[in-house]
Design goal:
alpha+beta; five-stranded antiparallel β-sheet; membrane; transmembrane; transmembrane helix; Roadblock/LAMTOR2 domain-containing protein
Length: 145
């Protein structure tokens, strides 16, 4: 099994744990339940993003951005401290998310420009979509696959 397969499995399991299996059954009224679910999912998204950030840093990916489907930046590092670069990354990931086929929950696209590889991953959960853009040197990206 290569690292990419491990990453797919990790992201898949983590997505379902955070978005699908977390209990949101504390309700005294429908309004409270709805508000709690929304706030709980935001917390789950932030927790998932923190875990993904740790995983990316452990793999040596120092330049990345993680955001929600509406463009809210959850985590970023390295070159993506620049807001304009984060906006461009979001635009590319948004276009990549349209490539998801019905039933697909994960799509990964790689692009190479001037010895720099950009890996765009789109994760479709039952309640939220996430985009992850990672920038790496081509030699580092080949070592990880």
């Amino acid at each position: 099994m290569c690292v990419d397969t491990h990453t797919y499995i990790f992201v898949y399991v983590l997505t379902y744990f955070c978005l699908f299996l977390l209990p949101f059954h504390f309700s005294s009224s429908h309004q409270f339940d709805t508000r709690y679910k929304r706030e709980g999912m935001e917390v789950a998204a932030m927790s998932q993003a923190s875990l993904l950030k740790d995983r990316l840093l452990n793999q040596g990916a120092n330049h990345f951005v993680i955001f929600t489907s509406v463009g809210e930046v959850l985590e970023w590092s390295g070159d993506f401290q620049n807001e304009e670069k984060r906006l461009l990354a979001y635009t590319v990931a948004q276009q990549a998310s349209t490539l998801l086929r019905p039933g697909e929950e994960l799509k990964r696209i790689s692009m190479v420009f001037d010895n720099v590889a950009y890996v765009i991953t789109t994760i479709a959960g039952p309640n939220e979509h996430f985009g992850i853009v990672v920038k790496r040197a081509v030699s580092d990206a080949l070592e990880q696959s």
